[in-house]
């Protein structure tokens, strides 16, 4: 389990933006939609910065439940500044739950894969990138895979230095 947690933290460290704006939110949201379509998957997508939704799209065959899952997973990232997949695995490694350890309401917080911190390098977490519609690990992988292709190599290279 520690290897997984280390890997997830490395993703968060590596996949940071040099800058982010409304146009990048649109481009990233469209890239997530295109990647989901390539998988023949139906997902809801949300990109939120400082509590302002900059991109939201619900593909065919998604429901309002997907948006509710996004809200709850986004709350985890907002509170803990780590991906919702990391936090779920973190508490699993501790043989606990977020509800027991952090005394949070499970109706408000969902530590399941699918919400990733939107981080500006040398600044910190400013928002979230979230999807819902696939199994939780695949929701997380969809975001990570798209970010790995989306980010300029200079953005991720500078993070390694």
Protein topology:
Blueprint: H1 2-14, H2 22-38, E1 44-49, E2 52-58, H3 64-80, H4 84-93, H5 98-102, E3 115-120, E4 124-132, H6 136-150, H7 153-160
Antiparallel strand pairs: 1-2, 1-4, 3-4
Family: Belongs to the UPF0303 family.
Protein name: UPF0303 protein EDI28_15485
Pfam families: HbpS-like
Describe the structure.
It comes from Photobacterium chitinilyticum. It holds the Pfam family HbpS-like. This is UPF0303 protein EDI28_15485. InterPro entries: PduO/GlcC-like (IPR005624), PduO/GlcC-like_sf (IPR038084), YBR137W-like (IPR010371). Belongs to the UPF0303 family. The chain has 161 residues and is α+β, with helices and mostly antiparallel strands. The chain has a single domain, classed as Beta-Lactamase (2-Layer Sandwich), CATH 3.30.450. Helices cover 53% and strands 17% of the residues. It has seven helices and four strands; from the N terminus they run ααββαααββαα. A four-stranded antiparallel sheet has the order 2-1-4-3. β1 and β2 form a beta hairpin. It is globular, with a radius of gyration of 15 Å.
